[in-house]
Amino acid sequence: MARAPKIGLVSLGCPKALVDSERILTTLRAQGYTFSPDYDGADVVIVNTCGFLDSAKAESLDAIGEALNENGRVIVTGCLGVEEKLIRDTHPKVLAVTGPHQYEAVVNAVHAAVPPVHDPKLDLVPPQGLRLTPRHYAYLKISEGCNNRCSFCIIPSIRGDLVSRPVASVLYEAERLVKAGTKELLVISQDTSAYGVDLKYATSKFHGRDVPAKFYELSKELGDLGAWVRLHYVYPYPHVDAVIALMAEGKVLPYLDIPFQHASPSVLKAMRRPANQEKTLDRIKSWRRTCPELAIRSTFIVGFPGETEEDFEMLLDWIEEAGIDRTGCFEFEPVGGAKANDLPGAVPDEVKTERWERLMEVARDVSAARLAQKVGQTIEVLVDDVRPADNVAIGRSKWDAPEVDGTVILSDAGGIAPGQMLSAIVTDSDEYDLYARPVAAN
Ligand code: SF4
């Protein structure tokens, strides 16, 4: 029998791109392909690119070059795929270029490069698909595209307007994942709180019940599956308030990832941000009254065109007053094709860097103060990794998303395994992490 063809994959970019890679792999695996962890063993290499910032484009072009040097047979997909000319001008030897979410086109390009070999033993694929994240957590993509038009962003021109998945399709996928051992579902999209708008909130049947494609109902149904449910890319629209009540009930993790990007009304206006309401601070305070455990993660852009020192100081005060638990910060970078590039009032690079440093200092202080409040508490920890030589395990609390947030460093970690959920008492904290000791099970 012929050897199963082997595919290499380089996945760049955000969790949304990771989900695309997983879908491509799942389809190919179902068709009998296997995968190679290195360039040498692969018959062809797929590079899933990111094209969001110019720095990400450069990284993607470098990755394509590396794959060509190391292997020679390369198929390009993902966000940068919309710039086929740029890719082909830089790397004329690539075999095919496809854009984001063109799963079929990628798979066809793979077929053209290395035809599939049918083998019923190899064609089997686990029902939950193949994932690139560890078994115990999984990203759940609920929609593609975005109806907003933020002036610094080209995602809508790459990915189009919002297209939500039917709610039953999302729920069945989530259920399969949980049955296969997933303990944490990370809900992702470009604008999670807008879920279902394009479907006019149409219902679909989940185990015979009509469920509307709405943010609240989706969150509630996911919460009933028994895994941690973490919500990313939420905007502070009024209907988010009801989901905070689900957090207080323990159905959904008390965690919100809201990319606020700024706090000054004039900068937010120039950014054309959705849900740009003056009352956001009041809303956050009322959320914290409903769910005192709530942790908020956010990202901010400093040095946006027209940002004055006054705007920036307003942002620093706002981060402190809102008590943003987890902060990411970027210096404004013009993205080819974005409207913000034409705005007046460019901020010099050294001012951007200085503001970035000042913001991160404030963010660290806020984070450290909020984490210090957890010392002495008994918390649930999901273990990601163990280091037996040090008798230490690395896990996360309900307030930490993988990859982007802090961790919980567990001492006395003998007998602990990745994927385990356990109780631990917090003994110390620093700027980003908690330190804890497992509580012996009865
Ligand atoms: S909400 Fe704004 S930043 Fe986010 S994807 Fe949509 S347009 Fe881009």
Could you explain the architecture of this structure?
Helix 1 (about 15-30) crosses helix 4 and helix 11 (about 310-320) runs parallel beside helix 12 (about 350-370). The protein has a five-stranded parallel β-sheet, with helices on both faces. It is of the alpha/beta class. The protein is globular, with a radius of gyration of 23 Å. The chain contains twelve helices and 20 strands. Bound molecules: iron/sulfur cluster. The site of iron/sulfur cluster has 10 residues, from helix 5.
* Helix-strand category: alpha/beta
How would you describe the shape? globular
Please summarize the sheet with the most strands: 5 strands, parallel
Count every helix, treating DSSP H or I runs of 4 or more residues as helices.
12
Residue windows where pLDDT falls under 50 for at least 5 positions: none
Bound molecule kinds, no repeats: iron/sulfur cluster
Number of strands: 20
* Computed Rg: 23 Å
Adjacency order of strands in the biggest sheet: 2-1-3-4-5
The amount of beta strand, in percent, is 15-25%
